[in-house]
Amino acid sequence: MARVAMIGILLGVAWLNSAGGQEAGSPGRRSSAVIRVPADKRTIQAAIDAARKGDTVLVAPGEYPGRIRLHGKSITLASHFLNSGKTDDVARTVLGATKPGGAVIKVEPDCGPNTRIIGFTIQGGSDGIACHARIQILNNHIRKCGDGIDYEDVSGGLCRGNLFEANSDDGIDLDGDCDVVVEHNVIRDNHDDGIEIRFHARRGRGTINIVVRDNVISGNGEDGIQVIKHDGPDCRVLRIERNLIRRTKMAAIGCMDKGNTREDYKGAPIGDRIYVVNNTMLDNHYGLTGGANLVAINNIFAGTKNVAARNVAGRSIMVRNLFWRNGTNLDRCNAEKATMLLVDPRLDADGRPQRGSPCIDAGKATLERDGQEVLRIEKKAYAGKAPDLGAFETDLPSAPTSTGR
């Protein structure tokens, strides 16, 4: 686990090339500036308010009050991790709520798309980050809040390399028209869901894409990933790829209907497209429940206390998945039993295939339905003659992306 967490926390490091906040460049053009807290401005909010588009607010190690507001422009708000890449700088730069009931950081809808929040420990708010725009949230440790990140309205962007733990509600809560990539995070021991995704009725036009890939999701109090359908058209594509989901108190991946967030294990027939590709689901109470237009391929279900896959029905299909030591493997699922593997996956303590594992080169790289290709895993994403089963590809340096965006 520690190695996976380190991979996540070191991704997304940016390096500054600026001299003490001085402006440079040709006449009439302004270079980005660095505003240091507390050297240049005493408070983080004062530095944010003074910053202009493209500037960086660089926060020295210390403890700072929350109720921080980002608005009206694209800036980088970062700890010294931005320059050092050292996780010690994340731990030593703490943003905390001074009063109950508010977010530590609020991102207003008018924030620009190049806004970044990098390298803080964020704790104690009703939300760690209340996000109402599409921005980048990178390499933070968000703990003991309500929701770690609460995405609302037209929001999303990139959520990468963060650690979410011990939040009293969800690690990540996705609402509204949230178009987001959630990757290389560790999401563990949150009281409710690791990730909660609500499929609200679409406010605009077009398709919303949600990608959840290469995360370690463990020990959460309800579902690892919970998908909740509201009334409205099917307008989302959700890709759940190469995640390790383990020791979840309820379902590893649970589909709910009619706005219900209390897990009932019925497996709601959500019609939006959901791809569940190359995940490893270990020692959960339930595995995958629900979906009426879901493709599940190359997954490992092992050690499930009750049912590994329930009511994956409608136009859904399950192909080339491995089942081992589950209470029940399948309950009312559209599964190709001829392609099921019922063998010991031979995984190590981190969920990776050991040498000689039947998971190695046992997956499928393409899938067709009704004469049309619905999935293709690029050759660069696997090392052997075929993809391995589960989240980790043998002989590649880290868990790769399987189908991309």
Secondary structure layout plus pairing:
Elements: H1 2-10, E1 34-37, H2 44-50, E2 56-59, E3 62-65, E4 68-70, E5 76-79, H3 81-84, H4 87-92, E6 93-96, E7 105-107, E8 116-118, E9 121-123, E10 127-131, E11 134-138, E12 141-143, E13 147-151, E14 154-160, E15 163-165, E16 172-174, E17 177-183, E18 186-188, E19 195-199, E20 208-213, E21 216-218, E22 225-229, E23 236-241, E24 244-246, E25 251-256, E26 273-277, E27 280-282, E28 286-289, E29 294-297, E30 300-302, E31 307-310, E32 317-319, E33 322-324, E34 328-331, E35 366-369, E36 372-376
Parallel strand pairs: 1-2, 2-5, 3-6, 4-7, 5-8, 6-9, 7-10, 8-11, 9-12, 10-13, 11-14, 12-15, 13-16, 14-17, 15-18, 16-19, 17-20, 18-21, 19-22, 20-23, 21-24, 22-25, 23-26, 24-27, 25-28, 26-29, 27-30, 28-31, 29-32, 30-33, 31-34
Antiparallel strand pairs: 35-36
Describe what this molecule looks like in 3D.
The chain is 6% helix and 37% strand. The protein is mostly beta strands and 405 residues long. The chain has a single domain (2-381), classed as 3 Solenoid (Pectate Lyase C-like). The strands form four sheets. It has a twelve-stranded parallel β-sheet. The two termini are 26 Å apart.
